[in-house]
Amino acid sequence: MTSENNIRTLVVDDSDFFAEMTADTLTQQHDIDSVAANSADEALDRLDAEGFDCVVSDYEMPEMDGLELLESIRETNSSIPFILLTGRGDEETASAAIKAGVADYLLKLEVVEDKQYGRLANRIENVVSQERTRRKFESLVADSPDGIVHLTTDGTILSVNPSMADWLDDDPDTLIGQTLDDVMDSEAATQRVEAGRNAVESGTATRTEDAVGGRHYQNQFIPVDSHREIDTFQLVSRDITERVERQHELERQNERLEEFASVVSHDLRNPLNVAQGAVDLLTEPADSEEAELVAKIDRSLDRMGCIIEDVLALARQGRTVNDPQETELSTLASTAWTWIEAEQSSMSVESSAELAADSGRVQDLLANLFRNAIEHNDGEVEIEVGLLESGEGFYIADDGTGVDGDADDVFEMGYSSTQDGTGFGLAIVEQVAEAHGWEVSLTDSDSGGACFEVTSVELHD
Q: Residue 369: its pLDDT value, please?
């Protein structure tokens, strides 16, 4: 085999003149490095000693004809492309050539008398390209950590890669010819074969997930176009057990965290409500000092109430979004804006698109960012929501003075640049983003204010 950019061809013909002329023409006029051999025996010797990408052989030769030469070559080289030049244009010869496994065949007189060497060169380039592509694919399949098996629509195994053979605890050669339900859980095998049959009937690749022997798998079923008399498909299985177990553990942790936060907030609210009620029942303070003390107690109680609400929100917002729904960004932003007390500020949607999300939680994300812009700036603030130019997400920008501190620190739980802030608002924003598989970052807006960019978002027009 030669380099990827060169093709080396062996031309075999018992006519010295034709063999040399064909090889020279392919080399000089079509940049195909070609060598002539004047007999089948010489061709076999050259193939043993040198590397070639393709063999072009005459059919009618003494001692060994072209198809017999191909049979001999296949004993040691099962895949090198073989193009047959024949003087016969009858169906019997064509049928015998196809059955023997030739990559292509041409009428010799058309090549010689009509000087169609360009046509021959094109055929050589095509079959060599196909063979190189096949080898690359087989290499990828063989080295893939995913289990890959080629099946008929009745479940018969035609080929299997090492990873799948390891999962089935058998030798690849032994598995060929058996049915899938012979070598794995019959219920799962039946479901996989049925999914593959549906993929073949629809002509579209499909995906499923299942569990076999305590392991979880993501399966892809790909219809295969081939010259076989029966329909076939390729099954690609990926072991996702660790991912599923992590997700289940995360869900359990989130449930425990929410339960803990609910219990704590309940236990805190009772004494908090008692204290708030006592403050409300206090008579009018006798002097300004007492009035200031009552006001301080009232503000502290309000702040404790905000912290309790934020702790609950933080516990709930981190849960992974398992069932996102398509919704319009502009609708989410408009709804979130109605939750904000912002008489002196405004919000506009510069551009919008649909995205798959948990609407309630994304509205919480937007509301927290709107509130953050208003609380960290004095006076009127203009807030803008739009799509990033990269197409990877959306932004929330304001024309304020920007956010004090390091861009990474602002998402830390408890971080706040204002005395009245709880430090949970931007932490909640990050939790909501991560629950969707998104990322959120802080940068400067075009007007010098703050700009929060939410990326890794799949947007739809």
A: 92
> What is the C-alpha separation between 275 and 281, in angstroms, rounded?
10
For 363-418, the DSSP string reads HHHHHHHHHHHHHTSSS--EEEEEE-TTSSEEEEEESSS---S-TTGGGSTT--SS
Is 3 inside any structural domain? Answer: no
End-of-domain residue from the set 317, 350, 365: 317
pLDDT in tens, 96-135: 777 778 888 888 877 766 577 888 999 999 989 888 877 8
Domain boundary among 140, 171, 187: 140
Radius of gyration of the chain, Cα coordinates, nearest whole angstrom: 36
Most confident of 29-38, 96-105, 340-349, 398-407: 29-38
Residues 19, 104, single domain; the answer is yes
Assign residue 435 the CATH number of its domain: 3.30.565.10
For residue 444, report the phi and psi dihedrals to the nearest 5 degrees. Answer: -90, 140
pLDDT (tens digit per residue) in 249-277: 877 777 766 666 666 666 667 777 778 78
Angstrom distance (rounded) from CA 157 to CA 159: 6
Give me the number of domains the chain comprises.
4
Average pLDDT over residues 225-236: 78
Q: What are phi and psi of 91, to 5 degrees?
A: -65, -30
**pLDDT given for residue 307 in this prediction:** 66
Strands (E), 122-227: 147-152, 157-160, 206-212, 215-224
Q: CA-to-CA distance for 458 and 440, rounded, in angstroms?
A: 14
Block residue for tokens 């739980």 = 413
Cα–chain center distance at 342: 42
Sign of the Cα torsion 257, 258, 261, 263 reads negative
Q: pLDDT: is 303 or 97 the higher one?
A: 97
Residue 78 lies in a domain: yes
Q: How far apart are CA 244 and CA 214, in angstroms?
A: 11
Range of the domain at 148: 144-239
Flag whether pLDDT at 217 surpasses 70.
Answer: yes
Q: At what angle do helices 288-317 and 359-375 cross, to 10 degrees?
A: 150
**What pLDDT is recorded for position 204?**
92
Largest CA distance in the chain: 126
Are 406 and 353 in contact by the 8 Å Cβ rule? The answer is no
